[in-house]
C-alpha cells in the first residue's frame, strides 16, 4: 500500500514537472515583421531567441560568420549531398536566391561535411546544381550540434536583428520560402 502511494506521488510529480516544463519552454510567437527588443533576448535555437553565431569556411576557403548578415533575412539551411530531400530542395533555394538576392535576403547553406563520404562531393554538388548562394562547411559537426540538427534538411529563418523567426524540419519549396520572406523581411 505504501509503495503504491509513493509511486502515485512520483508519477504526479513527473506529470506536474512535464506541464511546468512545457509551459516554460513554449516557443514565443512573434508578430511577422515586428521589431524585437534584442537587448533582453537570450541566445538559443528556439523561435524568439537570438540565433547562435558561428564561423565556418566557405567553398573558396573564406571565413563566413552568421553575424555578418545582420540587417538581412537569413535562411540558415543545414543539409548534406547524400540526403534526397536536400537534393530536392536545392533548386528551390537557388530559384528564390536568384529572385531575392539583391533584396536583403541571404541563403546560407551549412553543409554537414562531417557526414559526407568525401569533402569534394560538396564542390561537385554545388557545381552540378549551379548553386551561387554561400555554402559553408561544418567539417567537425560543431555547428550542427549547437543547433541540435536531427533531421535533414533543417532550415532556420533568422530576421534582420538575428532573431530566429521560424524553423522547418524537412525540405521546403519556393512557395514556403517566399511566404517566409514576406512574413519576416
From TrEMBL:
PROSITE patterns noted in UniProt: THIOREDOXIN_1, THIOREDOXIN_2
One Pfam family here: AhpC-TSA
GO molecular function: antioxidant activity; oxidoreductase activity
Species of provenance: Paenibacillus lutrae
InterPro entries: AhpC/TSA, Thioredoxin-like_sf, Thioredoxin_CS, Thioredoxin_domain, Thioredoxin_ResA/DsbE_sf
Protein name: Redoxin domain-containing protein
Record bears the keyword Disulfide bond: yes
Domain Thioredoxin: 45-185
Keyword list, A-Z: Disulfide bond
Amino acid at each position: 500500500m505504501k509503495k503504491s502511494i509513493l509511486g502515485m506521488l512520483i508519477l504526479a510529480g513527473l506529470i506536474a514537472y512535464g506541464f511546468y516544463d512545457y509551459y516554460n519552454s513554449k516557443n514565443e510567437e512573434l508578430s511577422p515583421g515586428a521589431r524585437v527588443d534584442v537587448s533582453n533576448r537570450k541566445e538559443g535555437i528556439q523561435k524568439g531567441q537570438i540565433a547562435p553565431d558561428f564561423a565556418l569556411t566557405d567553398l573558396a576557403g573564406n571565413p563566413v560568420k552568421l553575424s555578418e548578415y545582420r540587417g538581412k533575412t537569413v535562411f540558415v539551411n543545414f543539409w548534406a549531398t547524400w540526403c534526397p530531400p536536400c537534393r530536392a530542395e536545392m533548386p528551390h533555394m537557388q530559384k528564390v536566391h536568384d529572385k531575392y538576392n539583391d533584396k536583403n535576403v541571404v541563403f546560407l547553406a551549412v553543409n554537414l561535411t562531417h557526414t559526407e563520404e568525401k569533402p569534394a562531393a560538396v564542390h561537385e554538388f554545388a557545381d552540378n546544381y549551379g548553386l551561387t548562394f554561400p555554402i559553408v562547411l561544418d567539417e567537425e559537426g560543431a555547428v550542427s550540434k549547437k543547433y541540435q540538427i536531427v533531421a535533414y534538411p533543417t532550415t532556420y529563418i533568422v530576421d534582420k536583428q538575428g532573431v530566429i523567426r521560424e524553423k522547418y524540419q524537412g525540405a521546403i519549396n519556393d512557395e514556403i520560402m517566399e511566404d517566409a520572406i514576406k512574413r519576416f523581411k
